[in-house]
């Protein structure tokens, strides 16, 4: 109940969603912080232990919020700044994703099914941005590409996934809408839960991993923080606060 109130109260105040991503058995746990400074911008920081390297990836959503027009990959530096290491951009006219990464000899491209899409390894952050403040729909349908951190190819297409509403239920004490998600390609599917009032992602248990070191995928919303940009900067600064000079 308290988390539901927090979600509703912070939707208009640049909320910060605090997730935990792991295998379904809880291993390889990682904290995923998702900041929505405005309806078309997303900032995500992924951390494990303090004082260690952390990913910092930002996205600019299309005006209708159905996909990310550009994602900038980077690392979290001290003073809460992003050190850019790569860019993913999307050409809606050709439905083509292009990734340029430092150290990659040339850009890599992938053409996906036209229409809405969400990058799987962005941990459903763009899906939360797309749905925040909206009533959960009966059906969701979107392409699910992936930037793989294992063996080539880097860019992978998991096909189009469809999430069909199953029922309203309590999910970890919260009013939620449960969906069953199925794919047309390599994606193995599983349940997805959205907040019944705000539309944001509460959790997912999918049988396909989004990183090479994982076997499958579990995502859980643990907390929602208010305070907007000031809180965001404070949370990022805390990751390296008091750490040795070369710890990052």
Give me some keywords for this one:
globular; 14 strands; mainly beta; 248 residues; single chain; 12% helix
Describe the model.
With 248 residues, this protein is mostly beta strands. The chain has one domain. It is built from 3 helices and 14 strands. Strands 8-7-6-5-4-3-2-1-14-13-12-11-10-9 form a 14-stranded antiparallel sheet, with helices on both faces. The chain is globular and about 50 Å long. It starts with a helix and ends in an 8-residue tail after the last helix. 35% of the residues are buried. Residues 5-11 have low confidence and may be disordered.
Brief summary of the model shown:
The chain is mainly beta. It has helices spanning 2-10, 125-131, 228-240; strands at 16-22, 30-38, 41-47, 55-61, 68-76, 82-91, 96-101, 108-111, 139-147, 155-171, 174-183, 190-195, 201-206, 217-225.
The coarse overall form would be globular
Number of domains as seen in the coordinates? 1
Broad structural category: mainly beta
- Strand share of the residues? over 45%
Question: Are there runs of 5+ residues with pLDDT below 50, and where?
Answer: 5-11
Give the biggest beta sheet.
Answer: 14 strands, antiparallel
Give the tally of β-strands.
14
Mean pLDDT figure: 93
Number of helices: 3
Strand order of the largest sheet: 8-7-6-5-4-3-2-1-14-13-12-11-10-9
Helical amount = 10-25%
């Amino acid at each position: 109940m308290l988390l539901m109130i927090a979600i509703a109260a912070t939707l208009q105040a640049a909320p910060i969603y605090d997730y935990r991503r792991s295998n379904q058995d809880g291993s390889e746990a990682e904290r995923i912080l998702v900041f929505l400074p405005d309806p078309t911008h997303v900032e995500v920081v992924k951390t494990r232990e303090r004082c260690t390297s952390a990913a910092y990836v930002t996205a600019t959503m299309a005006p209708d919020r159905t996909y990310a027009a550009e994602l900038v990959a980077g690392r979290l530096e001290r003073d809460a700044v992003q050190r850019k290491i790569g860019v993913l951009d999307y050409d809606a006219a050709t439905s083509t994703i292009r990734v340029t990464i430092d150290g990659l000899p040339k850009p890599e491209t992938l053409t996906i099914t036209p229409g809405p899409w969400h990058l799987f390894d962005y941990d459903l952050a763009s899906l939360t941005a797309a749905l925040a403040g909206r009533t959960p729909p009966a059906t969701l349908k979107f392409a699910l590409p992936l930037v793989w951190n294992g063996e080539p190819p880097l860019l992978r297409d998991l096909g189009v996934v469809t999430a069909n509403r199953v029922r309203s239920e309590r999910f970890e004490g919260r009013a939620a809408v449960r969906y069953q998600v199925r794919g047309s390609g390599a994606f193995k599917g599983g349940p997805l839960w959205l907040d019944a009032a705000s539309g944001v992602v509460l959790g997912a248990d999918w049988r396909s991993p989004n990183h090479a070191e994982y076997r499958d995928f579990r995502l859980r919303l643990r907390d929602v923080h208010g305070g907007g940009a000031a809180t965001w900067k404070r949370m990022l600064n805390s990751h390296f606060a008091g750490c040795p000079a070369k710890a990052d």
